[in-house]
Amino acid sequence: MAAEEELDITVSSSLHMVSAFLAMEPPNVVISFAREFGEGSITESVQSCIWHHCITKADLKWQGPYLKRFLKKLILEIESSGGLVLDELYEQYASYMISLQNNDGNKENFRVLKTISFLFPNESSGIVSCPKSMKFEVRLQCSVNMLEGDTGCSIWPSSLFLSEFILSFPEIFANKCCFEVGSGVGLVGICLSYVKASKVILSDGDLSTLANMKVNLELNHLSTHDPVHHKKVHCVCLPWESASEDDLQCFAPDIILGADIIYDPSCLPHLVRVLSLLLKHNKHSHAEVGARRELDSLPADKLLRHPLGKGPVAYVASVIRNAETFNYFLALAEQAKLVVTDLTEKVEVSKFLPYLRSYQRSSIRIFRIHV
């Protein structure tokens, strides 16, 4: 009997196991889900599921070293508990040993292909503006080493959180022109397209990051040059320090987004200037500005859904790694007459990534910024 018939892949533990594998979580994480799926042991049925839904779906070009490490740990885990290992797993591991033996210490900076699966609870399958589906998968070419000059091509925790925020409140972004500052791998933009934003503009100041971002849009069937459909995802090169007022005000977004953009003190004056110009492309009366400031006292459900007048609003997710740097950002925002509101404790963002053990949501805060 085929694995698809033997085991229900929609069971949470199996779904988490497969999703963790495709996202290239540490092998021990995937194996822990496999044990849970097998009610304490990695049975032959569980191994068959791993074979059909993980190993055969993987690409040696992109995931070779990870596959080798995963199979080695999986086989050792099964053997140490006295279980029988499927012949297919032994044979595949031997094949990887041969094909990768000359490349193995190789270049941790190489790109890999991860699949991030947003898992919707059954009752959430009818999310406003979202297609009815159990999950939403995003394929991303990214770097495995975010600390060695490839930061723009890495998946940062705040971009995962901001994506969950978008999927939690899709009606906020549907039919809106959305502009992301520092878009990195493009994950946030892909989620904006999924909830039917009318226009998505992704920006970054690094040309190699932009090139990688465009690859990711193509991987997710979002062409930046679509001659048929008027709705497009646009990618623009936007170094904060050299962006002119004319450059920025021509975008006229309804919503500005940013993930992990508050980190370098030397960049913050330029960032605040960019945010200020994007947020002030429409003039407000004194009464309207006062009304917008009063929104901060509203409960979360009304806060997010309240019409904010004609002016745009920004949502920024960030890990505050250095309090002094963040306080500097707040001071610059105040000088620019921007109102920064911490929404972290006011809104409940759905946990659509329960299998990502390496993703620490508790360290991330989300802010709303307006004039």
Automatic annotation (TrEMBL):
**Coiled-coil portions:** none
**Top-level taxon:** Eukaryota
* InterPro entries hit by this protein: Methyltransf_16, SAM-dependent_MTases_sf
**Pfam families documented for this protein:** Methyltransf_16
In the UniProt record, the gene name given for this protein reads LOC105175700
UniProt protein name: Protein-lysine N-methyltransferase EEF2KMT
